[in-house]
Amino acid sequence: MGQPLLRLVDAVTVPVPDLDAGLACYVDRLGHELLWRNDELGQAGLRCPGSETELVLTTRLPYAPNWLVDSADAAAEMIIAAGGRMISEPADIPVGRVAVVADPFGNELILVDLSKGRYRTDDTGRVTGVDSGGQA
């Protein structure tokens, strides 16, 4: 077998009532650096020092790790072939693709690829587009 399927924890989503309140806590009080903010999605990405993992404040998603994979579609197929099941079919997101599956033991895995690139931001951290180039 080649490389392991799950490359790293790409992000951990943390639900907040609204982005401004979340940023006041995690940036102003806890010291995390704002990487990007996308009000349309109700999300803001914060740096976790010493790691590639982002802390993603969200107004719409549950608390969960998001696993970086080379291809969300292929990773979902592999987990299903290993006895898992599909929870949410692969779909486009601004930076790539995402799928939600359950392993054979019922654990949900959020699979994310960065096949479209990473967010491009202005000086305030607001998302202005996506820089192509795929996964880092």
In terms of quaternary structure, the protein is single chain
Spatial shape: globular
Query: Average pLDDT value?
Result: 93
Q: Would you tell me the structural class of the helices and strands?
A: alpha+beta
Query: How would you write the strand order of the largest sheet?
Result: 2-3-4-1-5-8-7-6
Q: What portion of residues belong to β-strands? A: 35-45%
Order of helices and strands: EHEEEEHEEEEE
State the CATH topology: 2,3-Dihydroxybiphenyl 1,2-Dioxygenase, domain 1
**Count of discrete domains:** 1
Broad CATH class: Alpha Beta
Termini separation (Å)? Answer: 23 Å
Question: What is the count of helical runs?
Answer: 2
- State the share of residues found in helices, binned by percent: 10-25%
Write the CATH homologous superfamily.
2,3-Dihydroxybiphenyl 1,2-Dioxygenase, domain 1
- Total beta strand runs: 10
Radius of gyration: 15 Å
Tell me the CATH architecture: Roll
Biggest β-sheet description:
8 strands, mixed
Low-confidence stretches: none
Primary descriptors:
two-stranded antiparallel sheet, single chain, eight-stranded mixed β-sheet, alpha+beta, globular, 2,3-Dihydroxybiphenyl 1,2-Dioxygenase, domain 1, 15% helix, 136 residues, 2 helices
Structure commentary:
This protein is α+β, with helices and mostly antiparallel strands. It has helices at residues 19-29, 72-81; strands at residues 8-15, 34-38, 43-47, 54-58, 64-68, 85-93, 96-102, 108-113, 118-121, 127-131. It has one domain (11-121): 2,3-Dihydroxybiphenyl 1,2-Dioxygenase, domain 1 (Roll), CATH 3.10.180. The strands form 2 sheets. An 8-stranded mixed sheet has the order 2-3-4-1-5-8-7-6. The protein has a two-stranded antiparallel ribbon with strand order 9-10. A hairpin with a 4-residue loop joins β2 and β3 (43-47). The two termini are 23 Å apart.
